[in-house]
Every structure is written in structure tokens, then in C-alpha cells.
Long-chain-fatty-acid--CoA ligase
Amino acid sequence: MSMDYIVKVEESRPATDRKPSAGPVFRCIYAKDGLLEVPAGLESPWQFFSDSALKNPNNQMLGRRVTDSKVGPYVWLTYKEVYDSTIRIGSSMRSRGLNPGDCCGIYGSNCPEWITAMEACNSQAIVYVPLYDTLGPNAVEFIINHAEISLAFVQETKLSSILSCPPNCKSYLKTIVSFGNISSKQKKEAEELGVSCFSWEEFSHLGSLVCELPPKQKTDICTIMYTSGTTGEPKGYRRRFIFLFPLAHVYDQIIETYCIYKGASIGFWRGDIRYLIEDAQELKPSIFCGVPRVYDRYILDSVHSKLGNLEKGLPQAQAAPLLDRLVFDKTKQTLGGRVRIMLSGAAPLPRHVEEFLRVTNCSTLSQGYGLTESCGGCLTSIGDVFPMIGTVGVPVTTIEVRLESVPEMGYDALSSVPRGEICLRGNSLFSGYHKREDLTKEVLIDGWFHTGDIGELQPNGAMKIIDRKKNIFKLSQGEYVAVENLENTYTRCPLVSSIWIYGNSFESFLVAVVIPERQALEDWAASHNVTDDFKSLCKNLKARKYILDELNSTGQTHKLRGFEMLKAVHLEPHPFDMERDLITPTFKLKRPQLLKYYKDCIDQLYSEAKGLKA
């Protein structure tokens, strides 16, 4: 293989009785002489912010839109204003009995108070514990007890949720601070349970601008980050320094920390996907970070002339300058007109989406790969290297990577096209799962973190995510099914918005729950003189057969095997959502929850399909 962007630093490892075979160890060419080390004198994340506030006191730091009677412009806090607020809040936390190493919760959606609370914890060497704003009371209660949280900053809309926790968290939770105001009724309710409640303004006045900050070390735990996960209770990831997502997600925290380090301005959107474009046009960002699902909503038709020049190796700015000025600049204005870097992570970006964005946005697009355990990005594509399209690129300069064979899935790390489980080693991995050394030992083996994701090494050294080790099951006749790979294939059908595929070892075929594209289904109905509304269309047997046939046609086009074809589908008019606990905050399917929710539908699909076969 001709590895243009990585270098081999260790040879392959043959299989033994105890371990599967593993491919060579690779580094990015920019780290060929050794992994990047933390700069001397940089001891904690607090320095990123405090140094930046000293250098850029008047820079706009945190902004949000005023939304009283109508939506207004962005209103900003400067670095000096945020720094002063951070010191006061940190001092107030100490006055409530929190000391370095104690845990503080932050519960809510992205906003200036979230960042301020985080930096206040950093200033006092207090461990901050983010809570996804979509977590319900049960998960919040579990995390409060598991991390032993005594104080929590809470968004106003989440107060009722957290106020239901104290009866079962009375050993730990003693103080609640609202991002905004808090009613006298809520205060009284909490105080009866032994919890003191403060508004943001009240709490900030408990502290002082003059307080001695404790020393910090690189070995201190900075944050314990719980993921919502797809199964079971949330897992807490101990994060050490140095390493349109929620700040409870590591991707957003890393990006925002870097922006703060550079003295950049961070504007918060309103949190509603319907108004994302409107907020972007008002903010006019220069960096736009999103997940594939966000970018999916931004797709029109691909433009092939510029794409051809990109495929030939021309850089973004030279591929079609005239078309950029006459045509694509109008598309670029959709996101404010100043975006020069677009980043995508959390799930593979479909190739057609990546092609569209590269062509139309006149900016550099980089797709990356990372996990909470890797403290964000560990692989990333290199800007303007078009052959990396469809991949997550090469290792970052703090990480080494190797593939490990997965024989039961047919993946061989030593084949001519190396495929296997992605394993990581380096300076920016997590230190372990909080209070779960058993789980830590399962995934950290001989210094290598086993990600559970299946990668395919490309000839140029870039990695392509092709499967998930955990999402595999066996059908009754013995064939193994890699379900995520199938879902990625079937979603290439233009009639489908989302799909969940199900099978088990007691059945010989697959079925699926499908979220159809509304317009496509309504167009089919109009052409067949069907007058049903969308909800009724999803129950229409002919509509279901139409979608099923189109899905299997897509499967045949992409050379799926017979047992990978679908035998029946249920059409669901409502997208999978977090409110029903069917997806994670990063839009990954929660398979056990989906099975529980759609069990009756699944049983019916199998009955129908067997009846058709009889």
C-alpha cells in the first residue's frame, strides 16, 4: 500500500490463542518523529481562558439573540465580563463548601451561563459533570449519586426535572443554581427537601472578585463526562487535561475551548433546527461545526462541473472561481456568507452530502472521528485533499492507530485491504470509566483502547468507518448481519429519511421501521390518485410495498446479499426522537429502546411476511 499521509511505526502482530491478529501501528506524517506532547508550563484548561481574557479583554466572547417580544440581534459579553463573572461564581461555589476535586453538575442546553459555570469550575479545580439537556430525571438522579454531585447549575426549563431528584439524592445534592430566575414556590419546594436554591444573580453575589485560586496539576481530573449511551445506565468518562453539539458532548467542548484559547467569539443558536439558518445568517460565523443530520437538511442538488475539478486535485479556491462568484456564493450566504471551515463528526457523513458541501460552500470541509474516550477528535481528514472524501482521515498528532482483526465478522487486519476494529493509543485518551474499573479493563488492553468501530484502511492512509462491532447479530440460518452497514446503504434510497433494521437468531430474514421522506411519498400518492394524508399514507399497503421495493432496489444496486434484503417494513410518520428515548443526543439509534417501542410492529411485520411466503 502507498501510504501518503501516515507512517508505520510498529509491525503487524500475528494471531495467537488469546489475541486476534493486528495490523501495523500508524501515525500521521506530522507526528512521524513522535507524538505531540503538552507544551511546558501549560497545566490546566483554566489557562486557556484566563490567558485569553488577559490578552483579549474587550473581544466579544459569548453571544446570544434577545428573544423577548421578537427575535433581535446577538448581544455579547466580552472576555473581561465573562472572566469577572467566572471568578465570582467560582468564589460562590467555594462559599457553598465545594473544594478542589469535588464534583459540580451543569444541566441545560448551550448558553453563556453554561460556559461560565464550566470555567468557574476550572478556576477552582472543581470537577464539572455535564448533563445532556435531554436526559430524564432517572438518568440525572443516577449521575448525581454516582458522581456525588453537591451543587448543580440548571437551566430554568430543567428546574422541575432536577427538583424531582432530591428525595433520592439527599446524601449529595445540597445546592441548585438556576441559569436565570427561580420562583419562590420552587425555592420552598427545594428547601423542604433540604436543598438551597439560588437564581444566577443571587448566587453570583455570594462570591467575591478577589479570591485565591488553588494550584492545578495535569493529573487532576477536569471533568467526568457521562454519555446517554444506547443501552443501560450512563457511563462516566474521566477526562484529564489535555485532551450545534451540546456542551455536554466532548466535540463541542473541545471546539469551544480552542476558540476561547484563540480569543474568538462564540454565538449560541436558539436550539431549534427550524431557525438554524436564520441564526447563522445573523451571526455570520467563520467556523461551522455540525453532525451529518444537520448537514442533511442543507442538501439540494449536486453540481458536477466543480466536483470534477476537485476530483482532479484542484484546491477549493481554484476548482471553479467563476462559478463560486456567480452561483455558489448565493449558497454560501445561507450560513451567513463567511464560513471558511466546516467540521463534521459524531457519525459518518454520507458521500453525496460531503460532495454537495464541498462544491457549494466555497469553504474547507473536514470530516473527523472521535469518541468521548478519546477526548474528541482522534482522526481527521486533511483540508483540500480530495481523495480523503468519504473517509475520516488520518490520526491526529497525539494518537497512534492500528486495526485488529474481527474473525467472526470476516474482517482481517492483515488482508490486502486491511479491515478491523480501530484501536487507539496515545497522549489524549481518557483515564478510565468513573468507578467502573471492570469496564475500563474491557476496553483498555495493553495500552490500546478498543473503540468497537470497524475501519477500512485506504491506500493513501485514510481511514473509512464501515461498521460497528457491537451491532452484529446472527440470523436463524447462521448468517451474520452487520446492521449499521446495512442501514447506511438503505438510507441512500432517496425515499427514506431514516431507517432502523431488525433481525434475530430465531428468524431467517430482516424487517425494518422506516421514516419516509414526506414529499416523496406524497408525490407517489398524487401520481396514483391516492388522497390520504401523510399519516394515513404510512398505513397504506400499496405505499408500504412501494417503499419496500425501492429500498430493495437500492440494496441490489449496492450488491447486498439475499439475506440482507428486507422482507417487510413499517412506515412511521414521526421521526425517531429523543423525547421518546429512541435516539441519543448525537442522533445514534438506541436499539433496545427502539425494539421495546416498536415490538408490536415488529411482531406484526414477521407475521405478515411469513403469511406472504406461505
